[in-house]
Specification:
The protein is mainly α and 181 residues long. It has a domain of 98 residues: Non-ribosomal Peptide Synthetase Peptidyl Carrier Protein, Chain A. The chain has 8 helices and 2 strands. The protein has a two-stranded antiparallel sheet with strand order 1-2. A hairpin with a 4-residue loop joins β1 and β2.
Length: 181
């Protein structure tokens, strides 16, 4: 069984079973400068900000990776750094109105907003597919070959003469003519 060496396993918030397991071959860690303990942990965590158009879920994953590098960071430091890195949005406004006292409480609230973002994305994707089916370019519509302009109808012969003049029909209602005559 592979995994992390025994020296690296101490002080890590994972169970021995998790630490003993090997990482997948295609697993890439994010490009975050590792915390070496020489700088202020608050400064290290404060460098992580929510990127433009980045879903809350991805920001939370990046931030959690960064907090694992700073085992000495307190709940208050994590909560403050996470909140300061958020972009102005629904979750930020919620935290502004009612700040979270602990990082665990913040994570629970974030999970609700992540679920909401996922639901909104699914709804938007679903609408996109439906609108794609509904909207048709009128140029792609099959022309109605038998559509006739009102001006091309001959009232005395009661026959249809298309605008291009290529079709000439005999009277359409011969029985009516015989009955009236």
């Amino acid at each position: 069984m592979g995994g992390a060496p025994e020296e690296e396993r101490q002080g890590v918030p994972f169970t021995e079973l998790v630490m003993a397991d090997d990482l997948p071959m295609n697993c890439r860690t994010p490009a975050i400068a590792e915390y070496d303990g020489t700088t202020d942990p608050v400064e290290h965590l404060a460098r992580f900000e929510n990127k433009d158009n980045e879903p809350l879920k991805e920001y939370l994953q990046r931030f959690n990776t960064a907090t694992l590098e700073v085992p000495s960071a307190t709940q208050e430091v994590k909560t403050s750094a996470f909140s300061q890195g958020l972009l102005d949005g629904d979750f930020f406004k919620s935290l502004d109105k009612k700040p979270a006292s602990k990082f665990d409480a913040l994570l629970a609230r974030a999970a609700k907003y992540i679920n909401m973002e996922d639901a909104q994305a699914a709804k938007k994707e679903s609408r996109g597919r439906e609108e794609g089916r509904k909207r048709r370019n009128p140029l792609q519509k099959t022309p109605n070959r038998f559509q006739v302009e009102e001006s091309s109808l001959s009232k005395d012969k009661r026959s249809i003469h298309p605008a291009d003049g290529t079709y000439h029909a005999s009277p359409q209602w011969p029985l009516k003519e015989k009955a009236s005559g």
